[in-house]
């Protein structure tokens, strides 16, 4: 039975499952996406994020469950009746048509009169700053330009949902940053509901209203970028979204004890037992002089200069803790072998039952 | 000696290329170009009774050929039947090639071997196979009779030649189509579907245009093979189907009129030239 849905819900997945023979690729997936929001499916390859996207588009058939768009069940609707705009990782432009006809294709399929289709395609191309390339063939365009044509082609039909399958992974770093901003701007201008598949946490956190972190065909956490980063629901999420230190320890009546015997405090409540302790490298202060919830002594073992960051490897009772600090000019850097006092707060000490990956 | 290494290097590479191309150039010159030139020469010689060739220059063969309605009909007939066979072969081969293109793994390998396997037996054997199947008391005619329908005559007429040649040409067509299907990316088909194209419109607007290079190649290949096919029309036509290749055989071996046979052969070459021109025109338009 459908649970209560948000009043502005647009897309809803209910018990979506995929099985190949006896293998459950996706056991059962529930998800609710609001109208006008951009949601990222984030996870490692093989987590089922692309399969789920393709199920929404109708390109893959779910073994069970249903898909609702705007309250209407579209589970058994053929692909061409679903009204989705999809941007493929490889762009999938029609190589035998020029840019303008690529963009017009969806309009032609909707039997829009030729002159109007041409006009709307020109507007869509103007929107992605490619109006001047309307008569080029796709192979004459750069990767970034092809990407924008694919975006224009998907948006011009004013689809009910925009689906993006790793759209930026074939672009170089600089172009990726530009396209990230541009796609987000276009999505917000048009107020379209969008689902964005990516394995890149930066894309997911920076572009999307909410992030679905997936693993092994199920949802690990569904929340805003801040929630996912600051309050990861599982150790997997903490590890996958952002860098983190991981220490073994035990939760006892007295508090948390690390393997090396230090006592730590955490804001998280858990039943007693073996735990994994996770702390983000940049939340640790390297030379703690004041009060801190958690203070440990260590020795600097490695120093790596990364440009905007300096990464220190600090050995604490036989375990290595990574600490990151912003590079500051004129500050005498530490040397390997120096003794340091690490400090961090209880809120930044995330604990999870041991063994969770 | 590093003064000018670039030029001698390029020159050496050029020499190597010539050296590597020489054997095939020689074989082609001796085995193909010379005989064709010889044929062209014979077509301007006069034939004597009993197979002799009179070494004079004459337009007789060409004039006779072009003014005789029998030969005009023969050429048109051959071209027309070959085109029809090519088209039929295309229609029956296209779905197979598309399926093979989309299949993957060992299933694809197995099916590809299955498609190619007819080429392991000679066209003669396969033609006799078709004769056994299509003959008046063969399985096909018997089955039609058993259904109470009037028995068709499928052997020793154009129908038999048509059926036999279509099957014999299918492996070539399928291989040529598959070779030309490279541009067909499944993602592009999916893109068309998500943009609202029904399967039929996806086929017409995306799959068909993208597979045209393969279609053109397959049609050229099968048309050329059909026009020049000899064994199948000879055996299955039972002497009642007159095509260019069989007529050349009859003129050269039965009537011993080599100049006329040569003239017909050159005519076939001209037809091939026209087919090649049409093919490259299609490719130019696609580009």
From TrEMBL, chain A:
Gene3D superfamilies in the record: 2.40.50.100, P-loop containing nucleotide triphosphate hydrolases (3.40.50.300)
Molecular functions (GO terms): ATP binding; ATP hydrolysis activity; transmembrane transporter activity
Highest taxon, organism lineage: Bacteria
Segments forming domain ABC transporter: 11-241
A GO BP entry: quaternary ammonium group transport
Pfam families (UniProt xref): ABC_tran, TOBE_2
Signal peptide: none
Keywords: ATP-binding, Nucleotide-binding, Transport
GO annotations of cellular component type: ATP-binding cassette (ABC) transporter complex
PANTHER family according to UniProt: SPERMIDINE/PUTRESCINE IMPORT ATP-BINDING PROTEIN POTA, SPERMIDINE_PUTRESCINE IMPORT ATP-BINDING PROTEIN POTA
Entry's family note: Belongs to the ABC transporter superfamily.
Protein name: Putative spermidine/putrescine transport system ATP-binding protein
Automatic annotation (TrEMBL), chain B:
Transmembrane segment boundaries: 16-37, 79-100, 112-134, 154-177, 206-231, 264-283
Subcellular location: Cell membrane
This protein's GO CC annotations: plasma membrane
Pfam families, sorted: BPD_transp_1 (PF00528)
GO biological process, one term: transmembrane transport
Domain ABC transmembrane type-1 residue range list: 75-279
Domain of life: Bacteria
Membrane topology summary: Multi-pass membrane protein
Entry keywords, A to Z: Cell membrane, Membrane, Transmembrane, Transmembrane helix, Transport
Family matches, as SUPFAM superfamilies: MetI-like
Family annotation (Gene3D superfamilies): MetI-like
Keyword check for Flavoprotein: no
Signal peptide positions (record): none
Matching PROSITE patterns: ABC_TM1
Coiled coil: none
Claim: Nucleotide-binding is one of the keywords in the record: no
Primary localization class, coarse: membrane
Family affiliation: Belongs to the binding-protein-dependent transport system permease family. CysTW subfamily.
Protein name in UniProt: Putative spermidine/putrescine transport system permease protein
Taxonomic source organism: Shinella granuli
């Amino acid at each position: 039975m459908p649970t209560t849905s948000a009043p502005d819900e647009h897309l809803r997945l209910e018990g979506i499952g995929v099985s190949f023979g006896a293998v459950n690729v996706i056991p059962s997936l529930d998800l609710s996406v609001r109208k006008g929001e951009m949601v990222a499916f984030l996870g490692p390859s093989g987590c089922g994020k692309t399969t789920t996207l393709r199920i929404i588009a109708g390109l893959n058939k779910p073994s069970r469950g249903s898909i609702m768009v705007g309250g209407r069940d579209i589970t058994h609707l053929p692909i061409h009746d679903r009204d989705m705009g999809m941007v493929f990782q490889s762009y999938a432009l029609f190589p035998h048509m020029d840019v303008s006809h690529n963009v017009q294709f969806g309009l032609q399929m909707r039997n829009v009169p030729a002159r109007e289709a041409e006009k709307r395609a020109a507007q869509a191309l103007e929107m992605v700053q490619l109006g001047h390339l309307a008569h080029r063939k796709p192979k004459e365009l750069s990767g970034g330009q092809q990407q924008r044509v694919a975006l224009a082609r998907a948006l011009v039909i004013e689809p009910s949902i925009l689906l993006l399958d790793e759209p930026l992974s074939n672009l170089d770093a600089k172009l990726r940053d530009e396209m990230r901003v541009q796609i987000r701007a276009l999505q917000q201008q048009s107020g379209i509901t969008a689902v964005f598949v990516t394995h890149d946490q930066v894309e997911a956190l920076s572009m999307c209203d909410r992030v679905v972190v997936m693993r092994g065909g199920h949802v690990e956490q569904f929340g805003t970028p801040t929630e996912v980063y600051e309050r990861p629901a599982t150790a997997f999420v903490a590890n996958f979204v952002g860098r983190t230190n991981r220490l073994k320890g035990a939760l006892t009546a007295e508090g948390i004890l690390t393997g090396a015997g230090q006592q730590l405090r955490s804001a998280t409540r858990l039943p007693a037992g073996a735990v994994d302790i996770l702390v983000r490298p940049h939340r640790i202060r390297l030379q703690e002089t004041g009060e801190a919830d958690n203070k440990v002594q260590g020795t600097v073992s490695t120093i790596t200069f990364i440009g905007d960051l300096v990464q220190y490897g600090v050995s604490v009772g036989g375990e290595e803790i990574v600490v990151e600090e912003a590079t500051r000019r004129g500050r005498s850097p530490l040397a390997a072998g120096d003794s340091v006092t690490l400090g961090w707060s209880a809120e930044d000490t995330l604990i999870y039952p041991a063994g969770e990956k | 000696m590093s003064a000018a290494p670039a030029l001698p290097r390029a020159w050496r590479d050029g020499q190597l290329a010539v050296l590597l191309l020489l054997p095939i150039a020689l074989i082609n010159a001796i085995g193909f170009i010379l005989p064709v030139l010889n044929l062209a020469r014979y077509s301007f010689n006069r034939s004597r009774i009993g197979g002799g060739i009179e070494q004079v220059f004459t337009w007789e063969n060409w004039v006779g050929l072009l003014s005789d309605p029998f030969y005009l009909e023969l050429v048109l007939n051959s071209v027309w039947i070959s085109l029809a066979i090519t088209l039929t072969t295309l229609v029956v081969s296209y779905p197979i090639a598309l399926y093979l293109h989309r299949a993957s793994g060992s299933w694809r390998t197995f099916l590809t071997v299955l498609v190619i396997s007819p080429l392991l037996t000679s066209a003669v054997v396969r033609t006799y196979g078709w004769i056994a199947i299509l003959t008046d008391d063969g399985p096909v005619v018997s089955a039609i009779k058993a259904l109470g329908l009037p028995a068709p005559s499928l052997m020793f007429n154009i129908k038999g030649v048509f059926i036999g040649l279509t099957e014999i040409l299918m492996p070539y067509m399928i291989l040529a189509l598959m070779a030309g299907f490279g541009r067909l990316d499944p993602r592009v088909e999916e893109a068309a579907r998500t943009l609202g194209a029904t399967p039929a419109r996806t086929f017409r607007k995306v799959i068909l245009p993208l597979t045209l290079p393969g279609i053109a190649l397959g049609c050229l290949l099968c048309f050329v093979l059909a026009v020049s096919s000899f064994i199948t029309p000879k055996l299955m036509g039972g002497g009642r189907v007159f095509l260019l290749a069989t007529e050349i055989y009859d003129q050269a071996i039965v009537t011993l009129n080599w100049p006329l046979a040569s003239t017909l052969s050159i005519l076939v070459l001209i037809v091939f030239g026209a087919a090649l021109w049409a093919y490259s025109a299609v490719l130019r338009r696609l580009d």
